[in-house]
Fold:
Amino acid sequence: MNPGMKLLLVMLIALEISFTQSLIVNCILIAISFVYILTQHIRMKALLGIIFWPLFPAVGLFVSQWLYGSAGIHFAWILFTRIYAYVFLGATFTLTSSITDLSLTLEQDFHLPSKFAYGVLAAFNLMPKIVEEVQIIKTSALMRGEALHFWSPKLYFKSILSAIQWSQNLAETMTSHGFVEDYERTHYKVIRITALDWTLFFVLLIIVQVLLFFIRY
Structure:
């Protein structure tokens, strides 16, 4: 499915289950999402991560509702499964879609301004560089006998200065490559929303509506 359509579908379903209280529907969404993720040959480390890390907030909500809430243990299970439904729905997008394809389809099909689309793409591609720069800053500080921790304001200040320099270099690079804001552009990779994308979008959305309407438990 088109990445933009997939993102929209995930957001709509997540929004709907936020206002419904169906334990069975939550479990169905988790199961279907899990099977879909498995078919995409995701790394085992990533799969274990989306199972393990949400356990802490899910257990916290469950225990809080069970011990101190007034809606009973059934609602506690709804909150527990809702957390995992959010995570697995999000994983069907984040683990199976390319940020490059998402940026391109947002620009071409959803008419997002080019500067925002390429800005988002640049930010994601700079993430490894940012991690490397933070490590360099920490190492440089250690050579001067100073330890910078994640709560150190100096670490964030130096990182922001580096980011400002990168942003200026990136802007100059895009200009030198012929990027002009609000000017019609050609694309090396054209992404279109097909009839199959629309069909899948509405079929899946309708199925969720039917489940939410008939399954109230």
Q: What stands out?
A: Residues 108 and 186 are 10 Å apart (CA to CA). The two ends are 31 Å apart (CA to CA). The chain has a mean pLDDT of 87.
